[in-house]
Design brief:
This is SAP domain-containing protein. With about 90 residues, the protein is mainly α. About 75% of the residues lie in helices and about 0% in strands. It has three helices and no strands. The relative contact order is 0.08.
Amino acid sequence: MTVPSAEELDSFKYSDLQNLAKRLGLRANLRADKLLKALKAHLKHEERKENKNQVSNVFHHHLTKLCLLTEQLIVISDDLKHAVLFFLTRDHF
């Protein structure tokens, strides 16, 4: 469902505002000014939720990358530790 911007709502007819409210699950039998205000508040709330989800997804992506890099560093560290121990314990003759 394509949802209009808050600015676009200002040009909607009352019947269009009612139909949109019904599609969004909101009360549609309010006065025009109240209906417009309710729709704008709803759109703002949904936009904030979407932004929060996007930030959360980006955070999760970077956290996953950080975990993978940490695992790689642990492997490299173990390999380096074994190499140093081998070097220190081998015969020098």
